[in-house]
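Lab notebook page, bench 4
Experiment: in silico fold of construct C2
Operator: M.H.
Input chain length: 310 residues
Purpose: comparison with the prior construct
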Amino acid sequence: MAKIPGSPPPDLPELVRAEDRLSFVYVERAVIHREHNAVTATDERGTIHIPAASLGALLLGPGTTVSHQAMVVLAECGSTVVWVGERGVRYYAHGRSLARSSRLLEAQARAFANQSSRLRVARAMYCMRFPDEDVRTFTMQQLRGREGARVRQVYRQEARRTGVKWDRRDYDPDEFEASDAINMALSAAHTCLYGIVHAVIVALGCSPGLGFVHTGHIRSFVYDIADLYKAEVSIPAAFNVVAAGPVDIAAETRHAVRDAVFDGSILKQCTRDLHTLLLPDDRDDEMSELNVVRLWDGAERSVAAGVDYG
């Protein structure tokens, strides 16, 4: 048999689980290439090496050029590549996932397609944000009201803690610098958080577009999951940056978010939460059944693939 061209994929034990990876690396105005099983980023300051197998998401900003071999090693290692805009505040596209199993994706699709199960998942998301309250019988309208009040309170608390003047969330998605300093910082911080969450979602094989609270957008599920962590990650980071008198709000906010998630706890929490929401009765991790392919046999049945049933 002829040898398959191209670099062979790494063995499963060589891959790092999604929850144990680096959160994200943002690169702009650089050339991304490959050296062995690492990717390199080169600009006028020199070259850095990034271990592909332990990277969650590589965020590519303006002015980046990526070689074919760099994309090969990132894809085979399950590192998600996300193309973003200036200062990382726009999303354009992303690469392949780490998962080979569709188990979580199928669970997400089943829950999304049924009104009662969709409401169950949405309520479970709100329960995570209100651990001291029983909101399991609330309607979506009541849940949105409680969430709105919670977020406004978080903004006021952060303003008091840092001394940053706060009025309201007000920004133009098409004009980053049209907002005041705190709203620019919040936009940059939330975008970083979206990138991290997006990387985990696609690494586990889920669909970013099948949201349970948000709907109608290709990243609806990303916004759903990111909302679980804004009060602990992106909002405090943004207020801390503005309170320090930043020179470059976007860059310093990205660094603050990076520092806030440097220990990888957000990746572990996001992975656990996704499994809890979509497969509450199944605690297997995402690396199981990576290469299982079966044939649908009607109803809930399936049979082995690769068999001549004629």
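Observations: DSSP finds nine helices and ten strands in the chain. The CA atoms of residues 4 and 172 lie 49 Å apart.
Next step: discuss at group meeting.
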